Amino acid sequence: MRRSCALALVALMSLTAAAPADHSAADYRDDAVSLEGLIRDNYAYLDDLPGGRVPTSPQLIAERDAVHDRDSLLRYAEDMIAALADHHALTGASFKDDWGIVPSYADIWIVKTGDAYVVDAVKEGSIAAKAGVRVSERLVKADGQPIDAAVAAFWSRMGLQPVGERAPFAARVLAAGRRDRPRVLTFAGPGGERTLTLDSLYKNQPDRPALTVTAARGVTTIRFNNSIGDDGTIAAFDAAMAKLPARAPVVVDLTDTPSGGNSAIARAVMGWFVTKPMPYQMHQLPSEERETGIPRQWVEYVLPRPGKYHPGPVSVRTGRWTGSMGEGLAVGFIALGKPVCGGRMAGLKGAVYDFDLPKTGLRVKFPAERIYTVAGAPREKVVLKPCS
Q: pLDDT, tens digit, for every residue of 69-117?
């Protein structure tokens, strides 16, 4: 087991590796059988699942029993991970025609309001935004299929019902589309229905610097370009901060951090704004309590960084594409007493750990820690005031 707070983009886009010659059909089948117990023992949010149990069905059991090679094991693992309806859970390998990962490769955020699937947010500058997708429109079809039927089909293949969080989860995945082809989505609004063909976000991903630094009206904005997990981000942030006058106002822009990152980078960023150790988020490890009956909980701190302190005002902006460690930075700055705005964030649950299946080494990733604000609120449920 290895903790992985960062969802590295290389890992997210990895393709199925060639099957090692030394693994037998029995090895793949044994790993398939072990997966349910692995999730049951370690997934931090069992209580959020229907009945508080790892989802199962005759279809999933039949799929498990048919596993005989790496591809069939990966397909089964993808279905078991999808059954959690948790955008923070995934497999370490993938197929080229898999669904896009939300929120990293999504540009439309769908919520369910009554019986409708409503566009809650559109990513700034994205394919969907340029095509004119608008907040408050309804998603009514995906690839020509009525959205209710598409959502039901997403789950019925696994023998599951689209109850609770499963329905909006599936709608967001359908809106992200398949990785290897365009999406055909139909929206309804005041002007009637319109059908748009939108490229996958996996197509032609541009190279970007870790940060974009801009200045306007005496305020410097430092925008993270989905880079909280990139090795060079600390040095880039330090260089940007070192150029600022001592009391210059700074805006930390986290609106494009959907893939999260790691706590070392987050603590390095917050370290510029503290003069003493300060708590910034709280962790729980449910697996230890399940195993021993004794709860485990701890508070993580941000520490000052020698020679790196900015006494000027700092504020933080977030949005629907603020995910995982981006959300950790947001609640961390709140704990430091800094103003943070942006409404709802991605709401990604907990800290992700990597688990390698014992015989084949196939990797699955899911939240094994619950994360809270220092005040005790679940991080994934934090709602901030809108930015003015």
A: 999 999 999 999 999 999 999 999 999 999 999 999 999 999 999 999 9
Reading the block at residue 238, the tokens are 């330090």
The token duo for 128 is 């969907």
Q: Label the pairing between strands 297-302 and 183-189.
A: unpaired
CA dist 2 → 44, 351, 354, 368 (Å): 15, 11, 5, 11
304 alpha carbon, distance to own chain's centre: 28
Phi, psi of 122 (to 5 degrees): -125, 130
Per-residue pLDDT at 6 exceeds 50 = no
What is the average pLDDT score of the chain? Answer: 94
Q: How far is CA 282 from the centre of its chain?
A: 19
Q: 3-class SS at 108?
A: strand
The position carrying tokens 């801009």 is 214
Reported residue count of the chain is 388
Cα angle: 100, vertex 107, 133; to 5 degrees: 130
**Which value, in Å, is the radius of gyration of the alpha carbons in the chain?**
21
Map residue 43 onto helix, strand or coil: coil
Who contacts 206 (Cβ-Cβ below 8 Å, separation ≥6)? none
Q: How far apart are CA 180 and CA 169, in angstroms?
A: 20
**pLDDT tens readout for residues 264-297:** 999 999 999 999 999 999 999 999 999 999 999 9
3-state secondary structure at position 47 = helix
Task: Report d(CA 320, CA 174) in Å as an integer.
Answer: 17
Q: Which string of DSSP letters, residue by residue, matches 267-319?
A: HHHHGGG-SS-EEEEEEE-HHHHHHHS---EEEEEE--BTTB---S-EEEE--
Q: Give the up-direction half-sphere exposure of residue 75: CA atoms within 13 A in the CB hemisphere.
A: 18
CA distance 90 to 79: 10
Instruction: Report phi then psi at 197, rounded to 5.
Output: -105, 115
Q: Which residues face 3 on adjacent strands?
A: 353
pLDDT band for position 388 (50/70/90)? confident
> Tokens 């370690």 sit at which residue?
42
